[in-house]
Amino acid sequence: MKAFLRTASFSIMFIMVMGLGTYSLAQEVTAEKPAVPAEAAKPAGKMIPEDLFANFNLSLYSQYIWRGYELSRDSLVIFPTMTVGYKGFAVNLWADLDTRFTGTEEKEFKLQETDVTVSYSNSYKPWKLNYTAGWILYDYQPTAGNPDGTIKDTKNQELFLTLGLDTLLKPTFSVYNEIEIGQAWYFLLGVAHSFPVYCNWSLDLAATVSYLHDNSGPDSSDFSNFHDGNISAGLKIPINNYLSIAPKIQYSFPLSGEASRQIKDSAFSHNNNFVYGGLVLDLTI
Predict the structure, then answer these.
(1) CA distance 203 to 194
(2) Cβ(210)–Cβ(187) under 8 Å?
(3) Which one, 86, 90, 93, 199, has the greatest CB density within 10 A?
(4) What are 155-191's pLDDT values in tens digits?
(5) Which helix (H) or strand (E) covers residue 14, if one does?
């Protein structure tokens, strides 16, 4: 218990010190499912309907880490994603392409996962509050069966709500509720901001901590504790009004002894903390 409290306290203090020390941080940076933006910058001079936008994003990463879990190893992972939005409503399509998937014996190129996110975003300006609510469908490609010969569940669904404040460190609080395979709640607290470093380049830093309450398995496998933390840094380099590139690096680590054991037991490498990164190409029209 004391070790857990020390870990949680250290994580929270680290986030606060990092944020106040730089006086700025950027939007949450992850190689995970990207958040659907509440607003997208419109290119100057482009004749498009008001509030309509389309975003195309391609991330090339050294590893796929999601909520602290290692979902790839020793391969290049590619995350193509597309978002179309209008007046606060948005639809996002996301995929995970693993060039040498560790979960199969042949370690072949594999489309491992496809996700669909439908969301609505808005803001309440008097309180500098913005919010996004939505639904996510996760579709995983099966790689192995259960002991009785049946195929494992390959789909899951979540409902989510994100609240954010347009103030120092851009704090956000997100709640995800799993509704198909079982009942699980994932709470995510983040701080983020961005500051200029050269011409129109920006250095984006972010940090998150999470809490997981999962009673979807047998009683012996129930989990209710602080789960994973993530620290990230990215350098956004605009090419023109439409296109930008951003090299990024991240560090994922467990926040409790229980999470440390769970993440390690499920990992291909039997590790529980990961340093990974890559390059993100982003096009908005």
Answers:
(1) 6
(2) yes
(3) 90
(4) 899 999 999 999 999 999 999 999 987 789 999 999 9
(5) helix 2-22
* Alpha carbons 281 and 249: distance in angstroms, whole number: 15
Q: What is the residue whose two structure tokens read 């049946």?
A: 150
The CATH number given to whatever domain includes residue 80 is: 2.40.160.40
- In single-letter form, the type of residue at position 68 comes to G
Q: Considering its fold, how many domains does the chain have in total?
A: 1
Asked if 118 and 91 count as a contact pair (C-beta separation under 8 A), the reply is: yes
Q: CA distances (Å), 217 to each of 160, 214, 221, 222, in order? A: 21, 8, 6, 6
Q: Is 62 exposed, middle or buried (0-12, 13-18, 19+ CB in 10 A)?
A: buried
The amino acid at 123: S
Helix intervals (H) in 23-146: none
What are residue 113's phi and psi, to 5 degrees?
-155, 145
Cα distance between residue 69 and residue 71, in whole Å: 6
Beta-carbon count within 10 A of 145 CB: 10
Instruction: Give the residue numbers spanning the domain of 57.
Output: 2-284
Any bridge partners for residue 137, and if so which?
A: 116, 157
Query: Which pTM does this prediction carry?
Result: 0.80
